[in-house]
Design a protein that fits this description.
Layout (H helix, E strand, L loop, with lengths): L17 H9 L1 H9 L8 H16 L9 H14 L2 H7 L5 H11 L7 E11 L5 E10 L6 E6 L6 H22 L4 E6 L4 E5 L3 H21 L56
Parallel strand pairs: 3-4
Antiparallel strand pairs: 1-2, 2-3, 4-5
Helix pairs in contact: 1-2, 3-4, 4-6, 7-8
The structure holds iron/sulfur cluster (SF4).
């Protein structure tokens, strides 16, 4: 086990993850609904498809290198689909579109040439001011060029707004590795939807600035936590928010504040198929 990585079943003290940091910056009440109230959400077919393809690629890279071919990936896709519950399977529809995503993946790299240190790797770090960070790396590759964090994206390369979110994740993962390994990694985003990739290596100065942003987010979270003063911030994202019915900005009423959970806020929002990945 490498510094900063934790077993998937180890207790998870409160920490900030990329998803929850994005939520809080978008709307503090959304953060509360997801991380503290833990209100259930129904993943969209696109989110579910992404979860399935992540599970397939995780298993593919668990095979001997020589066996990681398209036929093996298609077989793994069938296995993962069979493990979904009937409601999830129905939500994906007759053709879940996995063949196209896997074809996009094989256009981007030959997995037989990949040497990875870990898949679905939980990594934790603490900033100088004590801000706790936690992230799950899709894959951490090793090679002559150093460490590379690989992040699979099941959609096409993002729009400008989506790119900001993707870059937020890139900086977060790079910061986690920089703080636990002492060296900033390269980060590769593999957009399977249109077989394009983006490779970035944030500078130390960028990461230091980003650490300041995350410290400010965590300070705001911990200020609101004792009383539950997480305020709504209505905007275009409300159209996609499953919790409008409980949101005061839309005439709703949140449940009584349950208090800061003993086991910390939830840091992953979406249910994952039962494939052995870290629990929610
Ligand atoms: S509906 Fe909008 S304002 Fe309300 S919690 Fe959701 S994102 Fe926030």
């Amino acid at each position: 086990m490498t510094a900063g990585a934790a077993p998937a079943d180890a207790p998870r003290p409160p920490a900030l993850s990329p998803s929850r940091a994005v939520d809080f910056r978008r709307c503090a009440l959304l953060y509360r609904f997801r991380a503290v109230d833990r209100l259930p959400e129904t993943p969209s077919p696109g989110a579910l498809r992404g979860t399935v393809v992540h599970a397939v690629l995780e298993r593919l890279h668990g095979l001997d290198a020589a066996d990681r071919d398209p036929a093996a990936a298609r077989e793994l896709a069938r296995t993962v689909l069979d493990e979904l519950d009937p409601a999830e399977r129905a939500r994906l529809g007759e053709d879940p579109g996995l063949d196209g995503l896997l074809a996009g993946y094989f256009d981007l790299e030959d997995p037989r040439t990949v040497t990875s240190e870990g898949r679905e790797l939980r990594v934790e770090a603490e900033l100088g001011d004590g801000t706790p960070l936690r992230g799950y790396l899709d894959r951490l590759d090793t090679g002559p060029g150093g460490l590379t964090v690989v992040d699979y994206k099941s959609g096409p390369a993002p729009t400008v707004r989506g790119e900001m979110r993707a870059l937020f994740g890139v900086r977060f993962y790079a910061l986690l590795l920089a703080r636990t390994r002492g060296v900033a990694p390269t980060v590769r985003l593999l957009h399977l939807g249109n077989a394009t990739s983006l490779t970035l290596r944030p500078t130390t100065a960028e990461l230091d600035r980003f650490a300041g942003v995350l410290a400010a987010v965590w300070a705001a979270v911990t200020r609101a936590a004792p009383t539950g003063d997480f305020r709504p911030n209505p905007g275009p994202g409300c159209s996609y928010c499953e919790h409008r019915g409980r949101c005061p900005a839309w005439g709703g009423e949140p449940l009584p504040y349950p208090g800061w959970p003993d086991d910390g806020p939830v840091d992953l929002p979406l249910p994952r198929p039962r494939t052995g990945e870290p629990p929610l």
